[in-house]
Amino acid sequence: MKSILSAAAVTLALGLAACDQPAPWARAASAPEPVQVAGNLRSQAVAWNEREGRFELNGAPLRSGRLWTFDGATDGFVLTGGEVLPSAPMGMDMRNVEADPVLRSPKGLALDGSRYSLVLVRLTRTRAGADWDGSMFYTTAAHGEGGGFQAKPVAGADPALNETVVLVYDMTRLTDGGDDWTTSLIDQIRLDTDDAGGGAFTVHQVAVTENPGVQALAAAPITTTRLASR
Predict the structure, then answer these.
(1) Across-strand partners of 228?
(2) 8 Å CB contact between 95 and 83
(3) Strand order in 46-49's β-sheet?
(4) Which of 87, 109, 177, 223 could pair covalently with 91 via S-S, beta carbons 3.0-4.6 A apart?
(5) What is the pTM of this model?
(6) Neighbouring residues of 223: CB distance < 8 A, sequence distance ≥ 6
(7) What is the pLDDT of residues 114-136, one digit of tens each?
(8) Structural domain boundaries of the chain?
(9) Which of 55, 179, 54 is nearest to 117 (CA)?
(10) Using CA atoms, how far apart are residues 164 and 150, in angstroms rounded to an integer?
(11) For 39-219, which CATH superfamily applies?
């Protein structure tokens, strides 16, 4: 009888101890997730702050009129001359197949160009390509793509294989469009990466933000902080 009672006491004690331990799924849920750090980050003044979920200029936030983060979706972006699909765990994979592939945002952005004139594209080249272009086009109710209504990146151009950069477009500095961006309501943006097929990228974030101005972008010291990335 005494041995039976002792066995019962041991079983009860083990049961109570188990109650103090979280269930396996609870332990897994509470464990910190591994942080992905992008390899081969180019040092730039404009960077993505993963914790805050925003672009910054040397730690100062850039207010976004539009921000796409591609959380399990392509967010309405379409690639002509290739394909886009959600990347794991985050981002958008972009595969250039034909010559002159073109990545377009959704239409109907209705962005006030006088307020938001900085376009930022954070991406990693995942497959080597040829003939880098890097042009940023846009459309309004008054005109379509083409002509002088485009800009080249003032920073982040022509990423190397496995290099992560932020393409920085100051749309107050158009090729030949004058002040058209800043006097228009922007309907859609378009990015040309490589002129030829074969290259591939992971696009992490795209944003259209307020613009600190040419002098601020040019005078800002280069940051070297490695930020966690998607």
Answers:
(1) 37
(2) yes
(3) 46-49, 54-57, 60-61
(4) 87
(5) 0.79
(6) 43, 44, 45, 47, 58, 59
(7) 999 999 999 999 999 989 999 99
(8) 1-31, 39-219
(9) 179
(10) 23
(11) Galactose-binding domain-like (2.60.120.260)
